[in-house]
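## retry 2 of 3
previous attempt timed out at serialization; input unchanged, resubmitting
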Amino acid sequence: MQVGTERQAGSELHAWRQFLARSTLWLGVLLLGSAAVCWVAANWQDMTKVQRFAGLQGLLAVCVLAAAWAGLRLRGTPGVRRSIPGALLALAGILLGALLALLGQTYQTGADTWELFAWWAVLLLPWALAAGSQAVWLLWALVLNVATALWLGERAFDWWMIFGGPGASSLIMAALNLVLLLAWEVAARRWRASTLFGPRILAALTISVLVLSLMFGDYILLRGLGTANGVAWLAVTLGLGFYYQRGRRDLVILAMLAAGVICVSLRVVGEWLLRLEPGVWAALPLAALLMAEAVWAARWLRRLGAEPPAPVAAADAEPAAASAGNAVDPADAGAPVAQLASAPAQADPPWYVQCLLGLSAWLATLLLLVFVAFSGVITTEEGALVAGLVLCAAGVAVLRSDAGPFWRQCGTAMAFTGQILIIYGLSSSTSFTNACLFVLLMAAAVYALGPDAILRFLSGLLIALAAAGLIWRGLVPELMREDLLDAWLDFDLAQATFVWLPVAVAGAWATAVLFSLGHRLGGKRAHALQPLAWAFLLSVQGMVWLAGGISAQQLPAMWQLNPRTAVLVTAGALLPAAAALAVLWPRRHVLTAGVTWGVPLALLILALFWLPSPGVGFALAWLLLGFGLNQPRLAIFGVLSLLAYLGVYYYQLDVPLLQKALWLGGAAVLLFILRGLVWLVPRLMRTQAPAAHRPLPPVSGALRWRTLAILGGLALVLAVANGGIWQREKLLASGKVVILELAPVDPRSLMQGDYMALNFAASREVTRLRLGGTDQREGDSILGYEPDGYVMLARDERGVSQPLRIQPEVHPHSDAEIPLRYRVRNNGVRIVTNAYFFPEGQAERYQVARYGELRVADNGEALLVRMLGEDLQPL
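## retry succeeded, writing output
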């Protein structure tokens, strides 16, 4: 490991302490927030309503009060005074969403899903304003986007009628994110907001929704560009292109805009070519056009990158201390934050240029495959094999020549297309094992001979796929070639645990070795290994989404069933500790023993928590390797993979939600303890001099305002939550009992757990009455009537309420009639709620439900209380 000679010896130790403090705190925040969501979704009935609400509100209040206290206590420490409160408020924001989900789950409110996210965004806004944290603002923007998307989804038919097509939804989503992007840029210039991630994420959302609407909308030729969506896309592309080239240069956003142009041109020019020459031959000039556009865009971006950027405000560059996040006190006054390893030589274009060229190569490959499939040039598998070998050889030859960038793109597309044709040619002519071996050798040969990073990356994906197939065959020897597709489609718990998890672990260790080996070798050899390492990395992330974790108690049983799988599963949990030791051991002379050995030992303890959730351990390994090997892209990928995995992990059914909550929460608590040790141990061991006691500066007006906003936001959240609880408890106590017939099914809800989707029989009768007494037929719309209304109910001889009539207001009605409010959503009638939440694992208990018991207030508002069986007895 190389350490710059211009730095102090203690600066690297300080940098590692900063990294450990930052990563333990934020990882603990994410895991504890995920644990709270899983705990709410588990719908644990062993706790009363009071215990659940008090526990969650208490935890939320502790986080908010701690954030307010930290902001005041750390006001004299630059770079820390906002980072720790920002992390705590981000956790409070996640807990706020869990509290709102618990409210809807407990009282079966039946509120529209978008309302939960809308209230979440409204109540989170004061904390976002007070925190000034990029993470909290991104959470708020994500919640607002989800609320808007859900709202549009429930009113898709309304927008279809009003605007004449579904493109209006894209316009609204793009406009929302464009406004957020402009607001972020203003904040960056005036209040020094970070521009590292926020603007790029918002720009990606803005561009992607417009591009997708043009690519897949029901347009004809150039007419699509003349619609509101086409005009909006042109305006956004030109406007953002001008600003991020001349105002504040951001080559990543410019690369996104170029990718959008390539995708839209694929649709527009493709339709035009098909009109001129109907047939598959249009795919060839279209592929050439896409590659030419990508080469031009890559040259443009590289030219801009070589030019000196325009002067920007200091706000656009986040200070080093703020970037480090939750820093500990400096070891030495003025000690810089070290760059832990020398950056690798940059021989290839920047990553965003490579992504642009990779997109072009993918699209061109697809077009070439379409041409081959439908042109009749190749009609047999043997012909595909021969053509694939020819294309591979031709593509490699072009790449090894002095051809220009356009022809190099052609060579990349030809070589990858040739590999796909070879795989097709082998599909029925050889065994599964032999096919995997041949693909592995073929892709390795192309990787070694083709001196192009993009082709090597694509070939690396094939190497990873073939290696996964060989491991799969080794773990499941009975797997035969003819049932391969069925084995992929017939996904179950055993396959997730005994196949995909070992495959993912093997790939993860190979990825870590490739990155570490490339850093150690350096020079051209490291440059040659990078595409393979990234190909393995992406493949592993796809596999771990399918993998099922196990707990430590299940390891002995797995050892008895399959020792190899047990060893591989354990190796996956130990990967973060091995990655930490790999990057810390070469620095043992400049680091303390506490850092060198303490970090791997702590990760060994945490390995118990990674067993049920292997993706968390993998993400932490990428974060450690990225920081230790000075590869920021790898560290960022680790953070993104963690966020994605936590979302996927929620829907994995092999581990119960309550166990997920316990494992994730336990890991979070341990991480918070480790965060405290990062601060405490250097002082106890006297490896860090205690900071000189200085009086805290006076509380500024801005800090006072932020503190009041934090506390005021907490008071608002508690008032709204407890006010809702009081109203619903009052309705449950005084509402009239109504029993309705229903028909359930069983999915899983976002954040609220297992539920059965309800369709009350009364809803069908209300729909019939809205249509004038006729049954609804396909294509009939009930949206032209008053959107909401009331149905009058009367009890039959069994006590089941039956609809009598509908009316727009709650009055008039007789004493024997019970008014019940209904809503029109998605061209259907919703009465009270469309879901009943029940504890995880009790689906069979509620499958026999035939009726729902409600409590209805005098104004027609109602809550679903419980499910009843055929005999009208509670389940």
